[in-house]
Amino acid sequence: MKKPFLSLTIATTLALGGVSSSPVLAAPAHSSPSEKAPSSDKQIVKRINVDKIYNNIAYLSQSPRVAGTESEYKAVQFIKKQFKSYGYKAEIEEFQFLSYTDPNKVELAFDGYDGKVQPKHLTYSVNGDVSGDVVYAGIGTLEELEQANVAGKIALIQRGNLSFAEKVVNAAQKGAVGVIIYNNAVGDLNGTLGGVNDQYAPAVTITKEAGEAVVAKLKNGEKVKASLKIEGASSGEKTSYNVVATKKATKNIKAKKSDIIYVTGHHDSVAGAPGANDDASGTSVTLELARVLKDMPTDTEIRFITFGAEENGLLGSQHYVDNLSEDEINRSIANFNLDMVGSKDAGELVLLTNDGEPNLVTDLSQASSKRLNGVATPYGEGGRSDHVSFSEAGIPAALFIHNPSEPWYHSPDDTIDKISKEKLQDVARIVGTAVYDQAKVQEKKPNPKHKKGKKQRMPHLHFKKDIR
């Protein structure tokens, strides 16, 4: 999902340049539910078995689960089998998507700069073998590129303001043969162009230190040449899957169909990462809550879903939500989305909504965490996970994640030994009791803050790769 450096007010995508922050609310203490907690809370808490969550993570994180691969399909079959063992009739949804294969070679060399250069490709960067004079073009607006006269040259552009795709397309339109984007913060710069586009020029990223050093030489009147090579990148259509298990309401509300609540996580991971935390953790908590709530009486329908191709731009959840009927959308009142909820090396639990505003999910969850832990879990603004797809359809949604992220994010070190049972149990308790608080059979339902928002796509919130 996000993720590194995700603050409580981040709404900017990784495809954009900046990170903003605001004061964070007090972090909750972790404790057992109060003796005065509702009996329904106690029923949920005592049913949760954190060892089952942990063991499912261990199984799923044996290898990467890249969308469209045999490894993902194996994980999908395991998830379906688990749902069925709890008594659900689980369904697998197939969908096709355009997949990007990362290049096997990314090279960049400067003539006239002896510093260390470790170029990174952007997801959807195209192959190329180019060389030419380097010219500085600010943040990559059309005006700056025109003024820099980038035709036949390699444009050096700073991260910020515009999406990476806009910078690369702008440079190509002005005739640049290649693009180098340098970071505006310390560290490597990983990102995405958001999709396939035949207008792209070959593009890589470098650190702030390297970029500023080259800019200084250029501003000093020195000529700098560069050679840039990307090989092995490719795009093609593949199949991914969503797994859906539905708990029907055991008692419908009079004179209307029952409300729908969604508990979700994504089962895919990025290449090279076993994805124990991202997001076998969210998938496994979703499975456990499906088991815990299966035989609890509810007057609300609860759908437990694991999505595929989240790492490719929230494709599985977008496919699922796009295929909901108008009646289903009207009955949908909440999406509890679990992404990266178990790392012992991450920070405290936070709730993130698309706009940073509270909704039914944050209200229920804050009330739950206050009952269980004595302090309401803080919330803020953030995208880049599957709650975005639900929010775009006007369904109240929030992401559960720990902030800041662990250093192993999107790396081969995202393994089971980094998982905290304490954090898994805390999230499972908060979400489980929050969901049941709304879904349980009761004479009078709380008035849900079910505000229908605009049905609009927000692509800048869809992509996960970010700076580490």
Description of the structure:
The strands form two sheets. Strands 1-9-11-10-12-15-13-14 form an eight-stranded mixed sheet, sandwiched between helices. A seven-stranded mixed sheet has the order 2-8-4-5-6-7-3, with helices on both faces. It has two domains: 39-100 and 236-461, 3-Layer(aba) Sandwich (Aminopeptidase), CATH 3.40.630; 103-232, Glucose Oxidase, domain 1 (3-Layer(bba) Sandwich). It has helices at 39-47, 50-60, 70-85, 142-148, 164-173, 208-219, 276-293, 315-322, 326-331, 360-373, 387-392, 421-439; strands spanning 91-101, 105-111, 120-121, 128-136, 154-158, 178-182, 203-206, 225-231, 234-247, 260-266, 301-307, 332-338, 348-353, 379-381, 397-403. The chain has 468 residues and is of the alpha/beta class. Helix 1 (39-47) crosses helix 12 (421-439) and helix 10 packs across helix 12. Mean pLDDT is 88; it is low at 2-31. 54% of the residues are buried. It contains twelve helices and 15 strands.
